[in-house]
Amino acid sequence: MESPARLQTMLAMFIFLLLQSGREVSSITLTFLKITNGLDHYNNLTLHCLCPAKNSDTGFRSLLPGQDFSFLFQPGDDGNTVWFCNFAWPGSRHYYDVYVPTRDVDCRQCLWMVSDPGPCRFDNVTQSYTICYPWNN
Ligand SMILES: *[C@@H]1O[C@H](CO)[C@@H](O)[C@H](O)[C@H]1NC(C)=O
Ligand SMILES: *[C@@H]1O[C@H](CO)[C@@H](O)[C@H](O)[C@H]1NC(C)=O
Predict the structure, then answer these.
(1) What is the number of the ligand 2 atom nearest to the C-alpha of 108?
(2) Which residues contact residue 129 at a Cβ distance below 8 angstroms, ignoring those fewer than 6 apart?
(3) Among 80, 86, 127, which Cα is nearest to 105's?
(4) In angstroms, what is the span from residue 78 Cα to ligand 1's centroid?
(5) Among residues 11, 82, 94, 119, which one has the fewest Cβ atoms lying within 10 Å of its Cβ?
(6) 46 lines ligand 1 (CB under 6 A)
(7) Which of 108, 122, 123, 130 to mutate to test the pocket of ligand 2 (most atoms within 8 A of CB)?
(8) Would you say the pTM of this structure is higher than 0.85?
């Protein structure tokens, strides 16, 4: 069992480290990104996603129709890091930039619905997935 004194020391150390890196901490604004499988429910198409990144790989995900996965990331130390994902389902394979700093500058929460013609981003104005772009390839 942890003694209260030990916990206090750990807490103090944590706060110290936080303050030490205060400048960086305050400049970090994380972006939330969610990807939902919006493929044909009738055919029960599983969407396979792979979103590699420089420092944090989100790994390989398989989503049943309607399922989603999400992650937080820092949109670029240099301000122009593009995040892309590889998507695959039976008979199709695409890749897509899920975060482009210049295009997605307005989105702190980027919610994507992936369907056959291409992904669409959630629009706060229409309250639905109406910001659509074609596949990169
Ligand atoms: C959909 O596909 C998954 C994975 O192949 C399977 O486990 C599930 O039972 C299927 N669901 C339906 C409703 O067919
Ligand atoms: C939409 O609204 C949510 C919640 O208020 C906000 O966090 C998000 O940044 C907004 N997204 C855009 C694109 O404005």
Answers:
(1) 9
(2) 38, 111, 112, 113, 120, 121, 122, 123
(3) 80
(4) 42
(5) 11
(6) yes
(7) 108
(8) no
Determine the atom of ligand 1 nearest the C-alpha atom of 65: 1
Work out the mean pLDDT of the chain and round it to a whole number.
83
Residue 87 has pLDDT above 60, yes or no: yes
**Where do the domains of the chain lie?**
29-132
Pairing of strands 83-89, 68-73: unpaired
Task: Collect all residues with Cβ–Cβ distance below 8 Å to 93 and sequence separation of at least 6.
Answer: 86, 87
**pLDDT (tens digit, 9 = 90+) per residue, 59-73?**
899 999 999 999 888
How many angstroms separate the CA atoms of 35 and 67, rounded?
A: 9
pLDDT of 23 reads: 46
29-132: CATH architecture:
Sandwich (2.60)
**Cα 44 to averaged position of ligand 1 atoms, centre (Å):** 6
> Is any ligand 2 atom within 6 A of the Cβ of residue 103?
no
